[in-house]
Amino acid sequence: MNFHEMVQRFAAALPGTDSFKQANADCEAIIRDQPFQAGAAFLVAGFCRSYVLIYEDQGLEHDFALRNQRQLLEYMNSLQAALATCDHAIAHKALIEVVTHYARSERIF
Fold first, then answer.
1. Coil, strand or helix: which one is 80?
2. CB burial string 78-89: b at 16+ within 10 A, e below
3. Cβ partners under 8 Å of residue 99, min gap 6
């Protein structure tokens, strides 16, 4: 499993907590097996765990779940593009940008 494969799987999944659970499991594999991608996977895994903890026992409206999935997918795509460069500085900058955007957002997960 690598970051690109995880993003593709998440993008194809139905919105809801199950897709976030799967992404979290994929991130755990990436953290274990892909050292360069581990920081990005750790950040995404944190978002996924938070989402599941907050929403797993709630009935979510489809639009809400879809909006959350799209937001995380936006973060994932940004990180994936940076990781594809294999440049540590670019990857680090992307991590900072995602964290900064999240900190200024509604923090839905």
1. helix
2. bbbebbeeeeee
3. 43
**Span 7-60, pLDDT tens digits:** 999 999 999 999 999 999 999 999 999 999 999 999 999 999 999 999 999 889
Q: Is the dihedral of CA 103, 70, 109, 48 positive or negative?
A: negative
In angstroms, the Cα distances linking 73 to 33, 44, 52, 57 are 22, 10, 16, 22
CB neighbours of 5 closer than 8 A, spacing ≥ 6?
26
Residue 106 and residue 79: Cα distance in Å, rounded? 20
CB 6 within 8 A of CB 23: yes
CA distance 66 to 7: 15
